[in-house]
Design brief:
The chain is α/β, with parallel strands linked by helices. It has a single domain, classed as Rossmann fold. The protein has 8 helices and 12 strands. It has a 6-stranded mixed beta sheet. A two-stranded antiparallel ribbon has the order 2-3. A hairpin with a 4-residue loop joins strand 2 and strand 3. It is globular. InterPro entries: Class_I_gatase-like, DJ-1/PfpI, Prot/Nucl_acid_deglycase. This is Type 1 glutamine amidotransferase domain-containing protein. Keywords: Glutamine amidotransferase, Lyase, Stress response. Belongs to the peptidase C56 family. HSP31-like subfamily.
Length: 226
């Protein structure tokens, strides 16, 4: 049986006091999608509200994986993503949360998202996230009451990167918030590829790390099926 992967995306399209336009950052969904597709996995999408999500970084559409996502089944399926609460996530072997600034708007406190991530993680499914996507891991409490990220090796968009990207727009600093909940944070050189697997949790730092997150998730899924 080929693995089933659920990609969970934000529905936000603006952020901050100046209503900066945002969405899911194209390569952060397209590059892992390409890895899952190449592995022959069944890929579904869900969004938090069930409304059509938004894409950011369409200026990067010339990248082959990005273009294939936009013109193929990827964006078509993401555009029609059902509401997360309407899905039975027990059928999925992995969940993946791409970044973009949008998740910083609607994912820090979303109770259904936290429940889904905890459920998948505690049954030893794979949980992956990249860039601002690891905001989805914040406030996820396991059945013993501890935070999911506590003691875990984690990468996400860094404070240094945020200072040069969207400091005036984000509601809080992601690196600091993850660290406050006990994450062992790994910051590589700004904008360099940096993805980390810690058990069945895979995280990445920035757009350049999205492919690596997808590759590591595939490696974990393949090792479970071997």
């Amino acid at each position: 049986m080929k693995a089933k992967v659920l990609i969970i995306v934000s529905n936000a399209n603006s952020i901050g006091p100046n209503n900066r336009r945002t969405g899911t950052f194209l390569p952060e969904v397209a590059h892992p999608y390409a890895e899952f597709e190449n592995a022959g996995y069944h890929i579904d999408f869900a969004s938090l509200t069930g409304e059509s999500p938004f894409l950011d970084a369409l200026n990067l559409a010339a990248d082959p994986d990005n273009l294939k996502f936009l013109t193929g089944k990827g964006w078509e399926d993401m555009h029609k993503a059902p509401k997360l609460s309407e899905l039975d996530v027990q059928h999925y072997d992995a969940v993946f949360i791409p970044g973009g600034l949008a998740p910083m708007v609607d994912m820090p406190e979303n109770a259904e998202l936290k429940r889904v991530i905890a459920e998948v993680y505690e049954r030893n499914g794979i949980v992956g996230a990249v860039c601002h996507g690891p905001v989805s891991l914040l406030n996820v409490q396991l059945s013993d009451g501890t935070y999911l990220v506590n003691g875990k090796n984690i990468a996400s968009f860094t404070s240094e990167e945020e200072d040069n990207y969207a400091r005036a727009d984000v509601p809080f600093d992601l690196q600091s918030a993850l660290t406050e909940q006990g994450a062992v944070f790994h910051a590589a050189e700004a904008w360099s590829a940096n993805s980390i697997a810690d058990g069945n949790l895979v995280t990445g730092q920035n757009p350049a790390s999205a492919k690596g997150v997808g590759e590591k998730m595939v490696a974990l899924l393949e090792s479970k099926n071997s």
